[in-house]
Amino acid sequence: MKGLITDLNKAFENRIRLGIMSVLMVNKEVDFKTMKETLDVSDGNLASHTSALEKQEYIVIEKKFIGKKPNTTYRVTKAGKEAFQNHLAALETLLKRGK
Amino acid sequence: MSENQKHLEDLQQIRSIMERSTTFISLSGLSGISAGLFGLIGAALAYFKLAGEFSILHSGGLYSRIEVIDVNFFNVVRMNLAYGPTIDLVIIAIGTLGMALIFATLFTARKAKKDGVGLWSSTAKKLLFNTALPLVVGGLFCLALLKHGLFGLVAPCTLIFYGLALINGSKFTLPEIKYVGIINIILGLLNTIYIGQGLFFWALGFGVAHIVYGIVMYFKYERN
Fold first, then answer.
1. Which helix (H) or strand (E) holds B223?
2. Domain A2-98: which CATH class?
3. Disulfide check for B159: which of A81, B78, B119, B188 has CB 3.0–4.6 Å away?
4. Which domain holds residue B187?
5. Does the CB of A67 have a partner CB in chain B at under 8 Å?
6. What is the pLDDT along chain B (224 residues), one digit of tens a residue?
7. A38: nearest CB among B3, B7, B17
8. Which residues in chain B are contacts of A30 at CB distance < 8 A?
9. Is the interface score ipTM higher than 0.90?
């Protein structure tokens, strides 16, 4: 059991981070507003969790300007995809063992 | 045990977020089946309409002023349709399309509600725009064909443009609809060779192809 728990990725422990990764797994590129609405979180909350994931190099944050408005978009990296899939697999195995 | 509960909730949340945020809207398989049925009904109505017109025609009745070249029931190649059955056929075609669209929207809305997702998303708008573009262009082109009396080319054109519309829209919904598009294009092209057999190809493309697609999609994605 102990070995299994270490498979869980600390970076994804938070619900909001799980949400960010889930959205990015099925969408190529998501902008700030869409992400905020999908997850129903505050600006600051989203910003801090996305930058944490960026530090881990699991996602890429791109800041562009559309006219004068700043437009931030997020994409998942290859490493992020793999890490998240491993995390999901670990969760599933844990659940099966727990039954 | 509570740790387990948390993991379970995490997984459920992940799944629901993935479903809610995907970039496509999922058309209900029932939409395809109903569209196909209306396609078949429309083809049948058109067939009886044409059959009726030509029996009158052959008896030298009402439509004797139509200049007809090679007419053999629904083997209509080229006519000068000043008084012909065009208007009725256009009404049947538009009615078929309308009914198919209404029921497709109803079934898809019902499915969206069941899945807990919105129907009118930005993706739905993209889907609509990308399918509408080839359809409108094709529709105008078909009107031009009718105007010039090139009756036999109308059916293949509707099939080809409709197929292109489906392929264009397939990026925004279940990707399998692409195959319905390809089948419609192939049928349309074949129809340009066997010109005048439009109703037969219509029944295959708009009718049978949709019903088969709808049944496959229904069992693949909706029946759990």
1. none
2. mainly alpha
3. B188
4. 27-222
5. no
6. 577 787 888 888 887 777 666 655 667 888 889 999 999 998 888 888 776 665 555 544 444 334 444 444 344 444 444 445 567 777 888 888 888 888 888 888 887 777 666 666 667 777 888 889 999 999 899 888 877 877 778 889 999 999 999 999 887 777 788 999 999 999 999 999 988 788 889 899 989 999 999 999 888 877 75
7. B17
8. 21
9. no
